Amino acid sequence: MVFPGSDGTLMHSQTLGRAFHTHLERAGLPPMTFHALRDTAATLMLQGGVPAHVVSRILGQASEAITLSVYAHVTRGLEAQAAAAVQAIFG
Questions:
Q1: CA 59 to chain CA centroid, nearest Å
Q2: What is the reported pTM?
Q3: Model confidence over 24-38: pLDDT tens digits?
Q4: I need a surface site. Which of 2, 17, 37, 61 has the fewest CB within 10 A?
Q5: Cβ-count burial of 21 within 10 angstroms (0-12 exposed, 13-18 middle, 19+ buried)?
């Protein structure tokens, strides 16, 4: 269990959401959903060069294809970076 309640049982999702928003405010961060952390983590991993199949496994997705389709906007940016790298190598 990642987020147990004060009594050791499963924390209710609304309780988690309220606590999350309180911590965001204290940290001076903009409002966001808890799920946005998952998207941010996946985006940063892909941008950092973590292979899509590894990101897919970490996210618990059924396949790399799902990860690549959900985060296609990230992979398009990575394709541009790859093209620029090849251009730099071959002039």
A1: 8
A2: 0.66
A3: 999 999 999 888 888
A4: 2
A5: middle
